[in-house]
Hints:
It is a single chain. With 457 residues, this protein is mainly beta. Helices cover 7% and strands 42% of the residues. The structure holds CU-O-CU linkage and copper (II) ion (2 copies). Residues 94, 96, 392, 394 line the site of one copper (II) ion. Keywords: Capsid protein, Cell cycle, Cell division, Metal-binding, Oxidoreductase, Virion. InterPro entries: Cu-oxidase-like_N, Cu-oxidase_C, Cu-oxidase_fam, Cu_oxidase_Cu_BS, Cupredoxin, TAT_signal. Residues 55-159, 348-456 form the Plastocyanin-like domain.
Amino acid sequence: MSFTRRQVLAGLVGLGVAGLGAGGVRYWLGRPENIATHDYELIAAPLDLQLVPGHVTPAWGYGGQAPGLELRCRQGERLRVRFINKLDVQSTIHWHGIRLPLEMDGVPYVSQAPVLPGEYFDYDFICHDAGSFWYHPHTASAEQLGRGLVGPLIVEEREPTGFRHERTLSLKTWHIDEQGAFSEFLVPRQAAREGTRGRLTTINGQPNPTLELPAGQVVRLRLINVDNTVTYRLNLPGGEARIYALDGNPVQPRPLGKEYWLGPGMRIDLALKVPSPGEELSLRNGPLRLATLKGVASSEVAGDWPPPLPANPVAEPDLARAETLRFNFEWAAALASPADEAAGRYKYWQINGQAWDINDKTCADRPIATLKKDGHYIFVLRNMAQYQHPIHLHGMTFKVLGSDRRKIIPYFTDTYLLGKNETARIAFVADNPGVWMFHCHVIDHMETGLMAAIEVV
Ligand code: C2O
Ligand code: CU
Ligand code: CU
């Protein structure tokens, strides 16, 4: 299923006001008031959710839902989003995986001033790459993403692909207790280890949903890990599924295989051959069921595997003339000072001996590396710790070349899951000028030191 921009807008206009909270109308869907100035109006606001039956979770949502409203645009087109902040805290929106100008990147004090309560900010950029992306704040991230400010951004291919059906599945494990109340988003002891995990796993905000899919058809499943901490070990026993894209970038289709580890921030686009009517498959995280995929009768003729998706226009790094830079990701909790901890400044992680201080607005003034615009670079990423880190770079897409721990078929991505004690090599052309965040996407690793700025001038 694919929409034209006009259909997207028409669909939104039809939806109108979405819900009522205790204090009257509390949130609205993304109907733009004036389509001459923006395509979407995206309101961040408090949102009462029922994640645990009979209990209210005081979440925060975009466009009246959490995970947020699915935004869509077509490759090569502009996307204009008016972000309206109806929270009582400041916020921004970062467009994860989108190659855009720095002013649109949503990083406070680097790209823009934070958007204050009651204010708005117009994001406006061209989507050069087709694929599955997502959006989230870059302010007080553990709490803001934790409360539900995460949403899918789907950039459709210029030309129709062979997929006639698709579903977006946003994976999130909520930090809530049995009564639906939020628990701590960042527990220091856990931030110094694998990160603070939530308790209730959901897909599109529903624990263990059953998804009805047209039997015999090939459906594109866009799985997006919008969670703060969890790496989902995806498997689909007995299912016929092929990988078509990783992290928004097409790959030569190949079988899903036994298991795919989807770290925080990462995406996988699968083609699934839906089983016969009434038959069920279970989409799992390791041994645990995430969702039931159920075939329902369809009158369409059976679908076949679509051709590979067209490549995105990402510059190919020239390894022969690339400069190599090394980045060590280190565990530094042993160095953490009690005075810092008492003041809420946790420094458990560092990159090349430097810990990012999430409360220091000037950190980005001291980039960890300065790259020449249009230079070619190889980064050697070395994980010195027993915990894995999904390493993410803003502003540019990189190619994963190889690893000392696993066989890599080189591919383009914005987030690489660096395993325990693994060393991996990535490469890219520094074609986007700016100051770009380079960080672990386990949010409490990022907030306790594992972030740096890479400057391209
Ligand atoms: Cu989703 Cu700074 O990233
Ligand atoms: Cu990002
Ligand atoms: Cu990490």
